[in-house]
Amino acid sequence: MIRAVQLAKSKAAVPARLHPPISNFENQDVVTHNGCNALQMATSAKLCPTADTKSNRVIVLFGDSHAGMWDDGMKRVASELHYKLILVEHPGCELKLIRKDGVTYPCHAWLKWASHTVDRLHPVATLVTYRTDPFTPSQFPLILGKLKRILTE
User: What pLDDT is recorded for position 151?
Assistant: First the structure.
């Protein structure tokens, strides 16, 4: 990992023999998790339990694409601890959009579906993660309060 950081800082060329090739990613802006997340205009999504799928103990990973980025690592942890993991994700519905149904992203409608869905799953834990970089550290307490209100409506 340190070597990769050093190469990036030195602006070294991207290796030519990547698998899959970097050209495959040129127009891909969303990881689809095998159809188990909401895409652009969706107001719901297919739920795909992973990790220990026979377990009655459920962990929900909830949020925008940042939740999806934690999926692989959380699968490993949930498997080791014998939990079922369910990703409830809508890429593009970042926190600043979550109360709105925009032209291209119906985030509020998705949030209503997602909140009711998570309630019915009775998870032992819900890990919530969203893009936060548009906010400054001094805004985090306000944002966390807003998120708590949204999720407990």
Answer: 61
79 Cβ neighbours under 8 A, 6+ residues apart? 51, 52
Residue 130 sits at φ, ψ, to 5 deg, of: -140, 160
What token pair was written down for 31?
């990881």
Residue 94's region, left for phi above 0, alpha for psi from -120 to 50, else beta, is beta
Residues 55-66: tens digit of each pLDDT: 999 999 999 888
Tokens 């891909």 found at: 28
Which pTM was predicted?
A: 0.70
Average of per-residue pLDDT values in the chain: 81
Cβ neighbours for 92, distance < 8 A, ≥ 6 positions apart: 30, 40, 64, 65, 104, 105, 107
pLDDT for residue 10: 85
Average pLDDT value for residue range 87-98: 81
